[in-house]
Fold this sequence. Notes:
285 residues, 8-stranded parallel beta sheet
Amino acid sequence: MPLAHMKPMLKKAQLEKFGVAAFNMIDYNSARAVVDGAQELNAPVIIQLSVKTINLWGFQPIAEWVRMLSDSVDVPVALHLDHCKDLNVIKNCIDAGWTSVMFDGSSLSFKENIRQTKLAYEIATSAGVGLEAEIGAIGGTEDDKFVAEDDAILANVDECVEFCQHFPDLAVFAPAIGTAHGVYKGEPNIAYDRLTEITSSVDIPIALHGGTGLEAEQFSRCISSGCAKVNISTMHKLQFIQGFTGLKETQPNLGEPIPFIDAQYELMKKGVKDMIALFGSQGKA
Ligand SMILES: [Zn+2]
């Protein structure tokens, strides 16, 4: 089917208390593993990209790949731009066919974040595309952005309410709740109370960033507390590499590339299906 919009997908997830998995694609094979995994479990899915990955392949090739993959299945697939501060990149994504975008103003002051998010909101909503916005500071490394876990700041509830009042049509809201990007250094310290306070005061689906490394019980608690979009980036990236290196270890003399691509695809697809099943979006397409 044609590329889907994220807002209705996440509204349904919010109401029915399941999580839609959002994977950061790397290349065509990685996108194929995500879309096929979702199709096999009849689940909605989000393919998202960091600006770094877009810079590698270009807007048009990525949009073509994901559109073609989406056309080949009958589950909703949204194409989303992850953490972005550059309005030009946002515009280029929308022009190329992205169905949602994120503006990340979390490193700005609260007032400046609202001011700049408004610019992104106008661009996105006038094009009929959903917007994700963030407040607080999610720890860890994502793309070129690094926030020391000690410096990570939980989103303030009053600020969440005020922020969302400016953006009633926001597709998804990302308040920092203690999760971190990358690989967790210690135990993830999720502020469930804060999350519940936010979801009881803000009626916009919540995005959970920093999903890799959380336990099943932590995912289900976040999802039942209102997280409708669950981001998985690091796991998918590690499996992208492990697919190759794992086969190289067992068959060191193999010189044909296609078995490596197959092994990588199967490992990533298994990871995708595991996450979809864990988040309860199986059968929810
Ligand atoms: Zn993130």
